[in-house]
Structure formats: structure tokens, C-alpha cells
Amino acid sequence: MGIADIQSTHSRRELLERIRNRAERVIGDRGRVHDPRFWSERISHMRRLFKNPRGTPTKSVPSPPPAAIITLNRLGFGPRPGEVAEFNSLAGSDPARLEAWVDQQLDPMSIDDSLCDSKIGAAGYTTLNKSLAQLWQDHVASSPPWNVRLQPYYEVERATILRAVWSRRQLLEVLADFWHNHFNIYGPDSWAAPVWSHWDRVVIRGNALGNFRTMLGEVAQHPAMLYYLDNYTSSSAGPNENWARELFELHTLGADHYMGVIRQDQVPIGPGGIPVAYVDDDVFEATRCFTGWTFDFDTGLFEYRSDWHDHFQKNVLGTYIPPNQPALVDGTVVLDQVASHPGTARHVATKLAHRLIGDNPEPGLIDDAAAVFEAQSSAPDQLAQVVRTIVLHPTFLTTWGDKIKRPLEILGAALRAADGRFTFALDEDDTGTLLWRYDQAGQPLFAWRSPNGYPDRKDDWQSATPRVHSWRLMNWLIDVDDPGGTYRLNVLGQTPSQARSANQLADFWINRVFARPIPSEERQEIVEFMAQGHNPDFALPVDSDSNTQDRLRAMVGLIFMSPPFLWR
Amino acid sequence: MRHPTRRGFIVGSSIAVAGIAGSRFPSLAFAAPDATTNDEVLVVVFLRGGMDGLNLVVPISGADRDIYETARPNIAVPLSGSDSALPLDGQFGLHRAAEPLHNLYQEGKVAVVNATGMTEASRSHFDSMEFIERGTPGIKTTPTGWLARHFASADNVPAEIVMPSVSVGNLQATSLLGNHDTVNMADPDSFNLQIGPWEWRNAQRIALRHMYSGDSTWLHASGLQALDAMDIVELNTSGSYTPANGAVYPSGSFGDGLQVVAQMVKLDLGLRVATVDLSGWDTHVDQGNNGAGYFSSLIGILAEGLAALYTDLDGVGAANYTQRLTIVVQSEFGRRLVENADRGTDHGHGNALIVVSGNAVGGVHGTWPGIGPGQLFDDADLAVTTDFRRVLSEVLIRRMGNNHLGYIFPGYTDYEPLGVVAGVDIPPDYSTTGDGLFADDFESGGTGSWTTTSP
For labelling alongside A370, which of A353, A449, A485, B90 has CA 20 to 30 A away? Predict the structure, then answer.
């Protein structure tokens, strides 16, 4: 903090005090609702805010909540009613419950997901299960209208939210989101959208709990990625390094293992005779290895063009690749090299820990997870084992508040807690409006343009736009479709008839949304909002007065906008 | 009364109260601007993806022209025809689609700096952006952005400023990371809580403020920041906005974003710094032949946007905002000299940087390293001859009046003005520990902790 901030602290206080005086005059004269606490608190907290810039906690974060809350909010999209009790019944201690829950989730096919399947079925999607060839035929080769061309993207976008809300395979949903961002592609692109359901179903979901090398191989040969990172056009006569560069920097070793523009022989050699990092020369050499990896624009299927391939010898990450190798060998060697590099193990483990625990995971946790990644490099469930190592680490249940929900998690958690029943059908107006509003919060699904995926540090999600537009989305959810029409969330219908006082109404919905008590200061605000100056134990005319009904809905909106709702 | 139909909002917003009383902030006028006040506005436009500066600022004569044409047989900007380059001087021309910018150049309002960038070589988009926006080449873990440290060290920014900075877009720019006063906003018209049951909006907003005041974690602080930002924007942006002087912003988010900046400047909320992004510059494939195509249309959006912002703010008297406006246009790196087989360009190194200002020293600046054999970086890319921090430092000192370079750009110690903007030179302060800046316990705050990662 510098001089400017110190001065502004002082002078803003004056400013606010003047405003307060003016406000008391203006509002007081009109006899409007006036809460003197508002002004004094505002000033004292403005002071505190100036002393403590954004991103600098003045105290540590909230104490960790019960294991069920941590688990269901971090490894899922928040609890549906009843799920906390279900979690707690799994075993006799928190670590044992966590382990039992995780092991169930890591075997998703063992979990009955028929309810979610029925929701997906009811939405009437037609492209989710098509083969790549079929998608290409129906959505590209037949030159359909534009909305048909993009239909697979739109269906996956909607199905993804439906699954977040309804699927019992919650960890798979969280990991699918993770891997979509790890191997980010801009989905609405006219060449990615037609094959999006194949990318999502086969490459991402099919491997999210599988083997990294297998996944990488499918990524490298998928038309959506070949197009997005330009490798489809890379030939010996005209190599294009875009794919090779992001393969190293984002998909495998990561920028922490990039030594820039120095020569290969200047890179220190690590254990096993492997260079500890990659340099631009490795990118260029790898680019040559992938020349001729393209796809057929008539079928959408991967194609290796020997006549485009650079057949001469290469040297990637200290491995010599002789000239004139059989088809695909050069690129396959590169994928083997990068997938097994210790830097990749650390890079992937670190990113997973950032997603599943917090921005500052314990170094020992990364060591453990990276070791499992390396040791299990051939296992068909390598990634499941890495995830298991991370989430069963003791710090999983002892850390909280190093992260907040991103917009997708906010939307998912709200719809789960309040049993939102949007159909997410393609042609449903309300779904379209919901997605339009959701997108403004800054995380439109599969629509991050750069190959690095949505940022995953808390710093990136605490600015005003995501906050304001998430709040708006919550208030839209609890509102009415159109005057006299139906409400988007059935708040009244789910409120038990015996809960009628402000205290009861607040406690019912707090328990419904959080499945635990929240800090008393925050609970008190919710109660006071509902009571509006009356005794919070008196019954309110919830059954007869539309104004009170609106207040109850707004109270639920307030709960969704509150700080405790955001922690994860 | 400005919002007779918005009673509900009024009680929840302190700023609105000032408004309903028939008074806007400037008229509260506590501390009249004194001699030490600086009211310059810096707009940083970041071109994300690596803008191909060699096709924006094009060699048009001599051996470099021959080399350029040979290296770029398809995508070179031509010297004749409808897409021909617009001469800047005898040596360089602007891409034809930058004509609106060229018009400003001819009025002396545009400084072009060739071959800028970082001496730390990285061809990674993401590393390079982090290095530049955090202001610490080679270190991407610096916890604050360079513009945040500008605010933290500036001693000439009036204290009563309501909105010192705005970061246009869905997420806050990294250059402002750590600045708690920044308003991050994509669209002022929807930046409010005028949604939900109307009769409870006001009470809900008060409760929301109470809840976010109830604790002092980073989340609570950021929630209050959002509430404050909403208060400010909501009161001040009612009604439609008509750009001045017939300025026409290009359609799309970039033009919209620049218009938001102009709007905020004119509201006299004290705006000092704005960030706006224009993405889509990673032109590995088909960037456009002979001065046309994709790159050309993107340059058109850039140039039209810059010209619209300048025109919109180019009033007379008190409305002559361009006299205190400086726009810096930068990208994370340039692109390779030689076009690739896909008629695109791969990641390069040195790049052109553009400054548009009412106080620009118009012309082409910087040392041109040449693009001949032996002159290229890594035998492939335009070299870097001007550290990007040199240009930014000059703007900071000559326009913003902030000489705390050691704090803003730790590790940068050899500043000399290049002469891209007019202004008074102040000897740079290279103290990196913040000594003299931290008068009391504030130094334990986040912006002070960067020293732990300084080189």
C-alpha cells in the first residue's frame, strides 16, 4: 500500500460521512426505511477494505465445514437435499466416509444414474451418442443449416448443466470440466461444434478417469484439436508449430518446465538422462514429428499423410528419432516422451490439486500425486489413482476457503439445492435465457478462446463482473417467468407449511442450501431481511400475501448470493 | 431527481443518495485539485494472441522491403493498389486497414515504437502476458500487476476519486491485479441488481452489503468491492450514451469496451486507468493475403476503435479530454518474419507498440534492428531494441507524474526517456523496497509483499 491509499482512506471516510449526513436528511425527511447501522458499518468496512486490498485476507479463511460439505462442494456441484445424510451414513468417521464416497465416485458405472439419464432423455437431444463419422455426415458434409451444424455443441452445453444438476456421478462431472479446460478447445467454432459430442463423450469423459497417455493420443488425433491448433495443415513444406507448442506448454510439461530460447544441449539433464525442461528447439522438432497428422475434410476422420511428413531425423527431449520411421512413429514417440516426463506428472498433479483442493496445495501432496502419476503411467486407471491420492490427502478435509465457486458451480449448486427443473431442451426459451444470463458471469461453457482454458485461481474470479452477474443470475432464478406465470424455482411449494416465522423460514432454507449452520452474523441478516423489522418469531402471511411470498423468494435469492454459498 | 422510478435502489446506495440530492461527486468537491494533482487518463489496450507487428508497421523501402517481401510472399502488405500501406515516413508504412489511426498519425497524435518487447525470451503467450502485465519479465508469480503498483505508489491522485480504474471485460486484467478499487465491468447497463422481486430489491441489497461486511476475508472484501462498483455505475450510467463529435465505435466487444471507457471518463468519476482487450491475434493460419483478409479486418476494428475513442473524447475546454489521454497499445510478442506455409505467422519476438495521445510526440520511434541476416533474434524474429518498460515508464513519469519505477518495475534500472510523449521528466526512483512509500502498517498489505519475489 502506498501514499495514495493512505490518503484515500482518510478522505473517503470524510466523503462517506458527508454522504451519510446528507442521506439522513434526505431519507429521514421522507420517512423511508432507514437503517443507521448501514452507514456506520459501511464506513468502518470501507476503512477495513482500504487497509486490506483485494486478495489479501486479513484473517485466515472460515474454519472447514463438515467433511460432507467439503466433499460435495469440491468434488461435486453442491449437495442435493438428503445427500449430506447419505454421505454421513457411508462410514463411521470422516476420513472413512470420504474414502467410501470417493471410491464409489471413481467407479462411476457402479452408480445408478437413471434419474439423470431420464432428464437427458426428456430433453430430446439427438447428437450426444453419434459416432464421429455420423456427426461429420449429419452436421458438416451434408451442408446443413447453421443451427444444425452447431447443434452438437449446443446439446453438450445443455447436457453438461443437466448432468451437473442431476447426475449422481458428480466427481466425473467435475473432472470432465477439468479435462475440457486442460485440453481446451473453443467449442462454438464452426469446425469444433459439429463434432463436440464426440470430443466430450469419447475423448474427455472416456478418459477422465483413465490413462493420460491414451487420452493424449486421442486428443492429438481428434479433428477438433487438429483444427483448433492448426496441426491439420502442418506439413514438411510448411510446418505449423501451434499444436506442438501448446502440447508442451499446456497439455504436458507446462510452462514451469520451459527454458525458452536456449539450445537443447544447454538444458540440464535430470534423472534417467532426460532433460529437465523443454526449449523452443524441442517445440520445433516436435512440430516436424507431427507433420502430416491431419484429418479428412470429407469424413472428419484422422488421416496421416506420409507425403506431408518430414521424414528426416529429429531430436526431442533428448531422444534421437532416426530418419524414415514408419507412419505415425515420430509423433507417437513425442507423445510417449511428454506423457512420461516427470514435469508432466507435476504439471497435471498440480493443476488437479488446484481444482480439487485449492490454490496453495501442500508441496508434499503434489509430490505424492506426481509419484502416483509416474508409477501408474501404464495403468488403465492412472488418472483415477492420481485423483484418489489428491483427495484422500489429509489436507483435503482441513483446508477451506482458498477457493470460491466459479459461475458453473454457482449455477449447479443453486439448481441442486432448490431442485431447479429447467428442461435444458434446445428450443426451450427459459433455458436459452438462463444460458444467456449465465454466460455474462464470465464462464460460458467450452467457450474460452485461448488454449489454456478458464483460469483457476481465486484471484481471477473475485472481481466485480463475475460477482455481479452471478448475483443477477440468482435473482433471476427465484423470479417469475412472466407476470402471472410460473416461477423458475418452486420456492413456495418446497417450503413446509409449518415454517412461517422469519426464523423458521430462514433456517429451513439455510439448512436446505447449506445443510449446516452458517455464521450467525450472516444468518441474522437473512432472518432480518425476512422479518423486516417485525418479531422474527411471528408468523408471516406466506400463504395469502403475494408481497410476503416475493420476500421469501428474495430471501432464497439472498442465500444464494451470500458469502457462505461461494466458498469451496 | 435522477431516478424517480428507482426508489428501491436509493436507500441501498450511498452514491445514489448523493445523486438524488441533486449533486454528483465532483460537486461535493472536498479537496480542490491542487498543484500535485494529476488527472491524466491512461488506457491500456492489450492485443491478445501476439499481434503481427510487421504487418501493422510495414517496411516500405530499401533492403528491408525486399527482405520483407521475400519472407512474406503471400501476406506482405503491398505498396500499391487499394490495400497498399500508408506511409508513416520514408521507411515504414501502416497497414491500410489502420487508416483511421493513420489520420491521427498525420495530426501528430500517434507515436509508433518499433521492436519493443522483453529481453527475456519467451514464445509462450501465457508466460509473456503474465510477465508484461505483472511488470516483471521472467517472474510470473509477482502477486500484483504493474498498474496496481502504479496506484499504490502514485502520490498525486486525488483522494476523493470514486472510480480510479476500470477493467473492461468479464475478468479483471492481470495488470490491475491487487488493486481493490478497480471496477471490472463488461457492460454498464446490466451492472446492477435491478432484477428479482422489485419491492424487495432495496432491502435485499442492504442485507447483501451487511453480509459482505460481516467478516473480513478476501471474499467479503471482493463482494463489497462489487457492491461499491455497482453503486457507482448504476447511478451514473442511466440512459443511453451518444458519442461526441460523430464518433462511431466498431461493433463488437472491443468497440463497446472503449465506449464504456469514454463514458466513464466523461462522468468525471476520476478515472485514471482503463484496460481493454482485443483478442484474436494468434494468426498461425490464413491471416490474409496482400493486405486483406482476417488480419486486415482485425486491424480495422483496432484502428476504428482507437480513432473513435480519441474523437469521442476530443472536445473543447473542460471537455477536451484528449489533452490528458494516453492510449498504449501492446501485445505479448510479435510474430515470425517468415510467413508459414499456411499463409500465417508463428510466434515471434519484438513487436510494434502504439501510443495515441493528445500529448504524443508523433512519429516512428525506437531503434530499428533490421530484418536482414544476422539482425534477427534467434535467426527468425524481429529483435527487441526497446524494453516495453521503457515506454510505460515514460508514460508513467511524463504523463502520470509517477517516478516510482523501482516499485512498479522491480529490476528495471536503466530508464531513459525515448520521447514518445511530451511531459516533464522526473528522476526515476529505483527504490524497490517501497522505502518512503510505506508510512505505517499498510506495508504488511498485499502490494508490499512483492519484494519477496523480486530478482
Answer: A449
A203 to A39, A216, A217, A249: CA distances (angstroms) = 55, 9, 9, 20
Contact between residue A235 and residue B341 where contact means Cβ atoms under 8 Å apart = yes
* Cβ-based contacts of B169 with chain A (< 8 Å): 465
User: What are B320's three cell numbers?
Assistant: 477536451
CB contact under 8 A, B151 and A6: no
Do residues B138 and B254 both lie within one domain?
yes
Do B222 and A463 make contact, defined as CB atoms within 8 angstroms?
yes
- pLDDT, residue B188, reads 84
Give the H/E segment covering residue A295.
strand A293-295
pLDDT band at B434 (very low <50, low <70, confident <90, very high): low
Nearest to A465 among B10, B125, B186 (CB): B186
Tens-digit pLDDT profile for residues B74-131: 999 999 999 999 999 999 999 999 999 999 999 999 999 999 999 877 888 888 999 9
| Within-domain flag for B15 | no
Q: A213 pLDDT band (50/70/90 cuts)?
A: very high
CATH code of B293's domain:
3.40.720
CA A513/CA A561 separation, integer angstroms: 11
Q: How far does A375 lie from chain B, in Å, by closest CA?
A: 30
Burial-class residue A252 by CB neighbours within 10 Å (0-12, 13-18, 19+): buried
Domain boundary among B206, B236, B266: B236
Say how many CA atoms lie within 13 Å of A104 toward its Cβ. Answer: 18
Are B183 and B197 in a shared domain? no
Interface test with A, best of B442, B447, B449 (most A CBs within 10 A): B442
Judgement on whether residues B225 and B100 belong to the same structural domain of the protein: no
Nearest to residue B75, comparing CAs of B345, B349, B380, B281? B345
**Secondary structure of chain B in the HEC alphabet?**
CCCCCCHHHHHHCHHHHHHHCCCCHHHHCCCCCCCCCCCCEEEEEEEECCCCHHHCEEECCHHHHHHHHHHCCCCCCCCCCCCCCEECCCCEEECHHHHHHHHHHHCCCEEEEEEEECCCCCCCHHHHHHHHHHCCCCCCCCCCCHHHHHHHHCCCCCCCCCCCEEEECCCCCHHHCCCCCCEEECCHHHCCCCCCCHHHHHHHHHHHHHHHHCCCCHHHHHHHHHHHHHHHHHHHCCCCCCCHHHCCCCCCHHHHHHHHHHHHHHCCCCCCEEEEEEECCCCCCCCCCCCCHHHHHHHHHHHHHHHHHHHHCECCHHHEHHHHEEEEEEECCCECCCCCCCCCCCECCCEEEEEEECCECCEEECCCCCCCCCCCECCCECCCCEEHHHHHHHHHHHHCCCCCHHHHCCCCCCCCCCCCECCCCCCCCCCCCCCCCCCCHHHHCHHHHHHHHCC
User: Phi, psi at residue B185, to the nearest 5°?
Assistant: -155, 140
pLDDT surpassing 80 at residue A34: no
Inspect the interface and report whether the beta carbons of A45 and B447 lie closer than 8 Å.
no
Looking at the fold, whether B282 and B229 belong to one and the same domain comes out as no
Query: Is B296 in the same domain as B284?
Result: yes
Please tell me the distance in Å from B10's CA to the nearest CA on chain A. Answer: 9
Q: Residue A38 pLDDT more than 50?
A: no
The dihedral built from the CA positions of residue B186, B188, B190 and B192, taken in this order, carries a sign that is positive
Q: Is residue B78 part of a domain?
A: yes
Residues B128 and B197 in one domain: no
The answer to whether A219 touches A185, Cβ cutoff 8 Å, is no
Q: Are B294 and B371 within one domain?
A: yes
ipTM: 0.86
Instruction: Clarify whether residues B196 and B95 are in a common domain.
Output: no
- Distance in angstroms (rounded) separating the CA atoms of residues A80 and A84: 8
Q: For residue A404, list its beta bridge partners.
A: A567
Domain count, chain B: 2
